[in-house]
Specification:
PZP protein; A2M/Complement_sys; Glycosyltransferase; 52% helix; Alpha-macroglobulin_TED; 4% strand; 6 helices; Terpenoid_cyclase/PrenylTrfase; single chain; mainly alpha
């Protein structure tokens, strides 16, 4: 058996353990391990506790939303996506997420204006969370997902890749 202790320090608004737990949960569910597996159960329990916190970073929320989507936890997925939508940057007919307190982008020539990898990454997780649902995403979700996909595709570099590490 695997013994893992998740989320040792939920206090103090530290998102690192939660972010790491969300990453691990996603990896386990993508294997796929069943939601009933004790490691997955513990991790999801931890994420459910963390999802109630007020201080979660946008990046962490995006990961948690996708983890809950994979786990089939529909209410938690929807609640996080609703909270994320309130923080979305909506412009030019597209939607994306950026780090809080980030300077507004200066109007640079196109080839300078691609987003940092963390933003491509978190926006991609939000997209996955919108599309990962049973039985299927609603029409409303699909049209919102299309706006997210539009922003992501605009971040491609001339070689067709992204600056993201993931």
């Amino acid at each position: 058996g695997i013994n893992m202790y998740f989320c040792d320090s939920l206090q103090g608004g530290v998102n690192d353990e939660i972010t790491l737990t969300a990453y691990i949960t996603i990896a386990l569910l993508e294997i796929p391990l069943p939601v009933t597996h004790s490691v997955v159960r513990n991790a999801l329990f931890c994420l459910e506790m963390a999802a109630g916190e007020k201080e979660n970073h946008v990046y962490t929320k995006a990961l948690m939303a996708y983890a809950f989507a994979l786990a089939g936890k529909e209410e938690k997925r929807k609640a996080l996506l609703a909270s994320l939508e309130r923080e979305a940057v909506k412009k030019d007919g597209s939607v994306h997420w950026q780090r809080p307190g980030k300077e507004p982008e200066v109007a640079l020539p196109y080839y300078h204006s691609r987003a940092p990898s963390a933003e491509v990454e978190m926006t991609s997780y939000v997209l996955l969370a919108h599309l990962t649902t049973q039985p299927a995403p609603s029409q409303q979700e699909l049209s919102f997902a299309a706006l997210i996909a539009k922003w992501i595709s605009a971040q491609q570099n001339p070689n067709g890749g992204f600056s993201s590490t993931q």
